[in-house]
From TrEMBL:
Name the record gives this protein: Cobalamin biosynthesis protein CobD
Lineage of the species this protein comes from: Bacteria, Pseudomonadati, Pseudomonadota, Betaproteobacteria, Rhodocyclales
Entry's Gene Ontology molecular function annotations: ABC-type vitamin B12 transporter activity; threonine-phosphate decarboxylase activity
Keyword hit for Transmembrane: yes
Gene Ontology annotations for the cellular component aspect, listed alphabetically: plasma membrane
Record-stated family: Belongs to the CobD/CbiB family.
Amino acid sequence: MPLAALTAVLLDRLLGEVSRWHPLVGFGQLAARLERQLNRRSLAGGAIAWLLAVGPWVGLAVWLHPLAPFAIDVVLLYFALGAQSLCEHAVAIARPLQEGRLDEARQRVGWIVSRETSSLDESGVAKAGVESVLENGNDAIFGTLFWFALLGGPGALLFRLANTLDAMWGYRTERYNLFGRFAARFDDALNFIPARLTALTYALLGRTRTALACWRTQAPGWDSPNAGPVMAAGAGSLGVRCGGAAIYHGHEEIRPPLGDGPAPVAADLQRAITLVRRSLWLWLAVLFIISGALHA
């Protein structure tokens, strides 16, 4: 399994995200269709839609897995990982921000965050980018690897599809508050342990004491039980301060502070990318060590 994980990570690094016919894009279209048909703003409807969206694909993966375990693991993990794509999106924000092209940087960061970005200043763009890199490091990489380590390719697929539905349906708006609650809670459960392992990894690879202190004191004030530890520890590790005011769906939200230090600048986006990449290689090393110990 560690060799399959390394192979998938290398494929992701070399090939990046599939530009056409990506399975997650098709899954998103299916999920949107199910939501339009089944959203009666009820918990039951949301749970049924979730099962219809996720169940058949995970069931198929489980059925196919014994036929070619290594190949299935590599393919599923490759499509589930988003490491290279995340880094490329972050670089696409940092470069124009460093070169003074603020409008382009605003547009680019708007592709990976749900807040409104049209009025952000340079610091606001950098902050949004850093927060997204840190949080998506868990969602697109480490949560996927955790469930891959436990359940192989089908586990990685389950996590990634569940996380995608949370991103699509897990909003506290009138439309999604009840319908998307099952998706949000299921994702919270799947992410509980991986998020804390991600936070610990960020802390170990940066300003450890500051990161752990920020995790302990700031994460409880964050709405998300999993994003709070990840972003607090990540921002503390980098020595920057995130959080604060942001506009979501036309309404300003005053969010608790995250991290400690000055507001992020463009260069901190690259530092966040480096932190995520170093964390990824550490996770792979740990997988090999654990596997070797179990088979010794």
